[in-house]
Amino acid sequence: MKLQGTMQINDKGHLEIGSCDTVELAESFGTPLYVMDEQYFRQNCRSYYRAFTEKYDGVVLYAAKTLLTLAICHIVAEEGLSLDVVSGGELYTAKKARFPMERVYFHGNNKSVAELKLALEYKVGRIIVDNRHELLMLNRLAGEAGVQAKIMLRLTPGVEAHTHEYIKTGQIDSKFGIVIENGQAMEIIKQALALENIQLTGLHCHIGSQIFEMQSYTHAAEVMLAFTALVHQETGWQPEEMNFGGGMGIYYTSADKPQPVIKYADMLVPAVQTLSKSYGLSVPKVLVEPGRSISGPAGTTLYTVGAVKDIPGIRKYVAVDGGMGDNPRPALYQARYEALLANRAAQQQKEMVSIAGKCCESGDMLIWDIELPAPVPGDILAVSATGAYNYSMSMNYNRLPRPAMVLVRDGVADIIVTRETYDDLIRNDLVPERLDDRVVRIAGAVR
Ligand SMILES: *Cc1c(COP(=O)(O)O)cnc(C)c1O
Hints:
The chain is of the alpha/beta class. It is built from 13 helices and 23 strands.
């Protein structure tokens, strides 16, 4: 496992994060445990802030869907970033954390009336409109509220980025955004410009996730600006801001080669400037929406090893006390992770094992084929790069309570999410009275 952020191996041979011994963290807080490296999270925020905001007067939106809690909101606000939320729940979390609402951008391909009303009531900075239905609904709701809704339109540029390559497919088959190629985007822009309670400030696109090929972004910029030039010709309108979404790839395993944020900024922003000038447009403010590349590397999950099952000549299964409930990504997209034994981090001899989760699903395997020092029950397994799309995607399958999360820094560990209890699991369950009666009667009959 690659040591990232403030990770180091201490004198006891234990993994440390934020100068906290992870074996002690596991003892104090139990496992599974999400550990967030505060300094590393902030450092990732700062890399973006420096590259896009200080250098180019751009705006950086942290993608809340990767990891959002009240404490995380506070840090993101403090680091000067804005926030991209995709639901009423994320919006509510931001509000409760007193995140400045003018720095909140509201996304989603099927926002409800209630969600849009909440966004207007909270006075969020922008609503990123995904489709015509939403545009008309928002115009009506804004009218009823007596306000102007500032919006961006989400477009489908037909550039689809995959991990190591991008395809310029002109792919128009997506549930997100409005297609440029077939004229629908032009149409909706004209419609938005004509609506009384809508103020169109810019355009948005998002070309994918876990991207390592920076050229994908300049291609997106080429498509977006060529289209903007057409829009300007036809309508006289041009965007004040252009949002290029998120997607920067991170290190999960040695197959991943992340790019520095500054390189991303230095490719994207000058491309937007040059293209704008060549089309005779004024240069829009550049917005980006990184999520994974801020929260992902800053998170580590600690598990306790339980059953070790050796099937000679086949495979050695090492089961841990979590799995797809706290990290659905391996089951969902065959995502790969690295790990080490936190209590024996310095040991060299290793054997090939596979890490199994505890859910009743054969697909609940956290890591296939990893070299570790012969794990035994009681060892603490640390899986790295679990900060993004883990807690935010976690679930209670098998009625497993969700883990706690601690924020570590300079030897101090603070709980920012408490561990769910069994009572939390039945919190929303109700038993209609007639069933309750029957249970009593049946119990009586048995007796
Ligand atoms: C998911 C998403 C992001 C964040 O993507 P990352 O790959 O985590 O950086 C940003 N913008 C939009 C619209 C998204 O859907």
